[in-house]
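QA checklist item 7 of 12: single-chain prediction sanity check.
[x] sequence parsed
[x] length recorded as 747
[x] structure emitted
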Amino acid sequence: MRAVGGSVRARLRDLVAASDPGLLRLAAGLRTVGAIALTLAVLSLLGADVRHLVAGAIAAMVSTFAIREKQRSRQAVTLALGLVVALASVSLGAVLHSRVVGGDLFFVALIFCVVYARRFGDRGTSLGLIGFQVYFMSLFVGATVSGLPQLWGVVAVAVTSSAVVRFALVPETPAGILQRLREAFRARLAQLVTAQLALLDAGPEETDKALQDVRDGTARLHETAMMIQGRLEEGTADESVARLVQRRIADAEIAAERLGLLLLTARSAERADTLTLHLPGAPVPPGGPLPVQDESTAALRRDLEALRLLVLRPVSEDLGTGLAHLRNRLLGYRDEENLPKASPAVQDVFRGVGEAARAVLGLRIALGGPQDDADDTPSTARSREELDAEDAAIDAGEEAAEEVPTGLERPTTRAAVQVAVGSALAIVGGEFLSSQRWYWAVLTCWIVFINTASTGEILVKGYRRLVGTVLGVVAGLLLAGLVGHHTWTAFALVLLCVFAMFYTAPLSYTLMSFFVTAALGVLYTLLHTYSLSVLVLRVEETALGAACGIIAAAFVLPVHTDRRTNDLLVTVLDRLADVTEAAVDQLSGGDPAELLDKARDLDQALADLRTATQPLTHPVTPLRARRNTARYVVALLETCAYHARSLAAMAELLPTHPSIAADPRLRRAGKRILGNIGVIGARVADGRAAVEVATGASIASLLESDLPGGSRYGRITDRVLRHLQRLDEAVVGLARPLKVPVAAPQR
């Protein structure tokens, strides 16, 4: 019974870890709710009235979620500075309460400064958020000069409570977050293997859903890898250990993605296109021999189950004889003599399982230290030796500084001007709707500019906020009627809504807006200002604020979605060229480079592009052809990134792997790819550029010796050639949707 209970707890732990990597959303919700609850408890003991309880709840929430630094010492400094900013902000709000024109002008100036402060990093962003939200709080509760001493005390209690919860009750350290992210990576890797197993077993009517599950699992695994990459510097004291973990995470991600591609190929009559793994809605290639019930595919199902078990076993536990036997069998597939009799495509899957097992072994060693090697077979011992040699070759590198835009070209400056103009419009329009609650329009206008960079992104965010607000009004009506004037029941519901708001914020902006508006309905009840007309006014002010934000974004220093996506597309192509050039150069015998850092820069640029194309791919967009083109281009770029990452990983193996040796002729093979990437980037940057994409013989043929009968010098694996060939095809494939001319093949 104890074993069964432990197994259930382990499964639940893995499920939670996979759904919320690093438990970041859970921790954010608990910290915010804890800070509000502690503030309410202290203020109630001090005899505060409902108005001050509401002010304390808002101040506690702001001082908790606004802090963005990862280091605890920096968080403490920012929180201390935030108290000063909050006291100044609430004082100005009270002083300017009765001065309509002066208050409005100051509010616009404050908004400009808040957005502009983002250029100073996380601390500037945090202090700006605190200043704006506390000023908004003063408007919400109707702060006056005579009531300032009490409000100062409320703000001080709120900030102190936030500090107590952050540093004592719900503490977080960079090392702890990184450890939980590693567990999330392991859980999501196991989920991906499960999805791949389901794809292997899926019948004709189930293949599309099974393939989509593999796509989703691959994307979630990549997301977690990126999150780990962003936390390595702060969460790891030893830089060499950080680079080792980075390397092992990248190996496991690439091996898992490759295994999915090999499974797709095994199901197909011909080799599957990598694009199928990245393009939503792309069907499984037809004509596959699977699923069947022969001996080799039964063994493959068994070994995929074994791989999943190897992934799921916690690093801290001893492998044991049984699991060591499974590990040895999977690693044995890296040797040709251990492959079962099967079709070439199915044998490739077994090879992929072996490489995935090697990546998992490396991940376990990197995260948990050396494992017991008493039961190692020669294949396993060889894998360990390779991993040890790779670990010893890892060195720290330096990052190059990037050019930073200045003046109005700086995103923070442009956004500050835009949001100031939009807020001025929202103030004027909001005053016409309501002289008491005009600030809701300003709040919406300000919020739609946060974390957006183009008119299209602002339009989509404004739409989502409006939808969430309308639904939240309905919920607010129901909740307000349910709690009546029961103060503590109402605060309990507010806490529940706040937790849900922070837990769902990274997943859905619409849901976050829904919970915000529902909580406000309850707060209005507490302040005895609840009515249906107030909630309807909330919707009207939200629509007005979103409209003002969109107008400002469209007519004041506009950054159109096309321009934004084109700029990011050029950046992605530049990063792709950097990774490819460095990998090909190293595989050709050049000097070692920081390939993993370059690969992650490519991944980050691609993530930025994916976010920027959301207005083009949103379900409500009327331009269906444009939406399909955007999805296709992003999928092609993800395919390019996968092959570039794989080349980078193989290039880093070059000094230690016995089956990979430098071949100078690879420079000739990579020259055409790099040239085409540059051509496409030039055409995207300038639509009038007279350039053409070059095509010709296959990559493999470019490696043939110039002398008749000559043989290759330096062993190059078939996998390197396949990645180069697929990368070449994907880059040429970008030409059609981006309207870049393609030259006729040269003979």
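[x] summary fact logged: The two ends are 72 Å apart (CA to CA).
[ ] second reviewer sign-off
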